[in-house]
């Protein structure tokens, strides 16, 4: 089976969705598939810096490419919003027996609704340009992709419900297939109890409003005022340490550490001395940082977004708190700080919970989906 994986990003193992795409491709290759890729490096050769304009142009670049090469592939697996011009044109260049799958790394519609809700509550600021593209035309493009594809792969129940109920996509065309854990996160030793000292808190991921930046800042300020002893390390913020520190109260500055960037494979080692993950994201397609931190032995305090409801079981593998509820986050952290034995038991349970998320299994499920579509199209072409 020959597969093309296309994504509107530069292909890099160090980036979220592109890293997942490369991992899926390797796992499919291990199962005998031939896999090619198409990303920003192919659509815009030689260009190192990308803007929303590149995202706007990418579907047309991809469509021209597909018209030339689609006949070479059995499966075209393309991120949502990107294959619609080619599909609406009648899939030029494709063989009669092929599968068009569109893949969401987080449905833009659900993210947009949460962002607009945050803006109404004064928790986020939207540019006047937002309704023109990201909050407007891009949502139309994504909906077109879902309607025109043979199947759509989504990452969580909330996205699937939205696609069915709000975008009227038939349930038969939707599949929930999660991400897998990379090899660096499998077979890690169970975390050893850390010596007595401050509670070791961590965040993993870009430090932006949608990821709960203001909630983290408010929570640690409150924890400090309540006399909870802690350190907080922020991994992969994507912004410089001075810029990150500037948002925090001076009272907690001494307990902060900022790691703006890291090599993905080094994350388990970085997290080896941490205990609790703060994951107060307002919207997620999946949340790889959450499952990777759990695999590294951190107990999560998370909002119920993306994959969290499937792996964070209150009282057993971590805590779930409502989006934007700083009081609940503070209460959950205080409980963990007060009971080291329970905290360690939850760390062990969190690590074990995610060990079944292997790329081999995800690739097998994905290949099964491809074969299902190809069988249908074989019957339909007779």
UniProtKB/TrEMBL annotation:
Name all Glycosyltransferase subfamily 4-like N-terminal domain ranges: 20-180
Specify the domain of life of the species encoding this protein.
Bacteria
Task: Give the keywords, sorted.
Answer: Glycosyltransferase, Transferase
Q: Which Gene3D superfamilies match?
A: Glycogen Phosphorylase B (3.40.50.2000)
GO molecular-function annotation terms? glycosyltransferase activity
The text of the family note is:
Belongs to the glycosyltransferase group 1 family. Glycosyltransferase 4 subfamily.
Q: What is this protein called?
A: Glycosyltransferase
């Amino acid at each position: 089976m020959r597969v093309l994986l296309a994504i509107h990003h530069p292909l890099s193992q160090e980036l979220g969705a592109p890293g997942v795409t490369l991992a899926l491709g390797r796992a499919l290759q291990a199962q005998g598939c031939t896999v090619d890729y198409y990303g920003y490096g192919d659509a815009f050769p030689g260009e190192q810096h990308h803007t929303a304009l590149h995202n706007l142009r990418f579907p047309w670049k991809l469509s021209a490419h597909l018209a030339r090469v689609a006949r070479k592939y059995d499966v075209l697996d393309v991120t949502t919003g990107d294959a619609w011009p080619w599909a609406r044109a009648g899939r030029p260049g494709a063989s009669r027996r092929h599968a068009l799958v569109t893949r969401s790394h987080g449905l833009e519609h659900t993210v947009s609704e949460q962002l607009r809700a945050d803006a109404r509550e004064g928790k986020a600021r939207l540019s006047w340009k937002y309704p023109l593209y990201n909050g407007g035309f891009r949502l139309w493009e994504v909906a077109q992709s879902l309607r025109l594809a043979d199947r759509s792969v989504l990452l969580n129940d909330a996205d699937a419900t939205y696609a069915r109920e709000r975008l009227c996509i038939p349930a038969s065309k939707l599949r929930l297939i999660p991400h897998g854990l990379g090899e660096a996160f499998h077979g890690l030793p169970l975390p050893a109890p850390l010596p007595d000292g401050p509670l070791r808190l961590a965040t993993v991921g870009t430090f932006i409003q949608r990821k709960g930046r203001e909630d983290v800042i408010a929570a640690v300020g409150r924890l400090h005022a309540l006399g909870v002893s802690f350190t907080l390390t922020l991994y992969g913020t994507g912004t410089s340490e001075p810029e990150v520190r500037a948002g925090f109260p001076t009272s907690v500055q001494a307990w902060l550490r900022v790691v703006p960037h890291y090599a993905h494979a080094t994350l388990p080692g970085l997290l080896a001395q941490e205990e609790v993950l703060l994951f107060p994201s307002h919207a997620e397609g999946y949340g790889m940082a959450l499952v990777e931190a759990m695999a590294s032995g951190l107990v999560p305090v998370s909002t119920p977004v993306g994959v969290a409801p499937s792996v964070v079981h209150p009282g057993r593998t971590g805590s779930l708190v409502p989006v934007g509820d700083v009081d609940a986050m503070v209460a959950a952290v205080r409980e963990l700080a007060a009971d080291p034995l329970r905290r360690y038991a939850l760390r062990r349970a969190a690590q074990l919970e995610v060990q079944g998320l292997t790329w081999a299994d995800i690739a097998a499920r994905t290949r099964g989906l491809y074969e299902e579509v190809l069988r249908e199209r074989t019957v339909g072409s007779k």
